[in-house]
Design brief:
Elements lengths: L3 E2 L2 H16 L7 E7 L3 H17 L2 E7 L5 H12 L6 E4 L9 H7 L11 H8 L8 H12 L8 E5 L6 H10 L3 E5 L6 H6 L3 E4 L17 E4 L3 E2 L5 E2 L4 H5 L4 E2 L6 H24 L1
Parallel strand pairs: 1-11, 2-3, 2-4, 5-6, 5-7, 7-8, 8-11
Antiparallel strand pairs: 9-10
Helix pairs in contact: 1-10, 2-10, 6-7, 6-10
Length: 283
């Protein structure tokens, strides 16, 4: 069996075009502020990509590139000022922050209606009970990919490898909302290989290159590789041994070009949602 490769790049372009068209009906352009503290190269690449996405969707965007020596008080003051800006609908603080800065304090400081990453405890709580305005961007991107390829999670066994607050846990919640039976695996899961082999939908977000070998994939499974790792040559790769897994899976995402572009596209969806909420409040 040769798996169908799930093209996140093409789908992301469709999503962003849909967002661009829908944004035209708003009284003003949606606005996104991105905060980057320090000079992490990977973070810089991500921020540049988000700026391009905003331009493609017709959004207004601002970037705040702060030195690594920025104090907690300075960062919190910036967030507070952006919270009070009527032209800024979404605030994104690029993680990780330099050592010495309290990430959770910053995430809590972002107003829930501008929390387009869906990291604020209020929004996480709403996600848990299915009343969310926003969905975490990466898990939402995975769900969009499943829908695009006609994959209904209902009644299927979904295995999520990884239990992070940003991907693993919310991914499990979104799959549960679509009526999948979900197993979350982590470093202390006994016989991880066997659990993976039982998955109809296998989502790996562990950040461990080569973790999902071909023999850990069930015949006909859907394999979603969320991880972004580097091999010994510095080449971008995921958790999944792609070639071997593709021989057994029915559908598989590549790295790069799979979930990554969808994460950014769903940020645009969340920013549009925030702009709609704010427009409704202004009426």
């Amino acid at each position: 069996m040769a798996a169908t490769i799930m093209d996140g790049k093409a789908l992301a372009a469709k999503v962003k075009e849909r967002v661009r068209q829908q944004a035209k009906s708003l009284p003003r352009r949606p606005g996104l502020a991105v905060i980057l503290v320090g000079d992490d190269p990977a973070s810089r690449v991500y921020v540049n990509g988000k700026k391009r996405d905003c331009a493609e969707c017709g959004f207004y965007s601002e970037e705040y590139a702060l030195p690594a020596q920025t104090s907690q008080a300075e960062l919190m003051a910036l967030v507070d000022s952006l919270n009070r800006r009527a032209d800024i609908d979404g605030i994104l603080c690029q993680l990780p922050l330099p050592k010495g800065l309290d990430e959770m304090a910053v995430l809590r400081a972002i107003h829930p209606s501008k929390d387009v990453d869906c990291f604020h405890p209020f929004n996480v709580g709403e996600l848990m009970i299915g009343m969310q305005s926003f969905q975490p961007c990466t898990p939402a991107g995975v769900m969009e990919l499943l829908s695009e390829y006609g994959i209904d999670p209902a009644g299927k066994h979904a295995v999520v490898v990884g239990r992070s607050h940003t991907v693993g846990k919310p991914q499990a919640v979104l799959l549960l909302q679509r009526n999948a039976t979900v197993t979350i695996c982590h470093s202390r899961t006994p016989d991880l290989a066997q659990v993976c082999r039982e998955a109809d939908i296998l989502v790996s977000a562990a950040g461990r290159r080569g973790l999902i070998t071909g023999d850990r994939v069930k015949e006909g499974a859907v394999v979603i590789d969320v991880a972004m790792n580097r091999d010994e040559n510095g080449k971008l790769c995921g958790d999944v041994c792609f070639e071997a897994a593709a021989q057994r899976a029915a559908y598989i995402t590549p790295v790069p070009g799979g979930v990554g572009p969808m994460t950014r596209a769903m940020l645009m969806v969340n920013t549009l949602t925030a702009a709609r909420l704010h427009a409704a409040e202004d009426r």
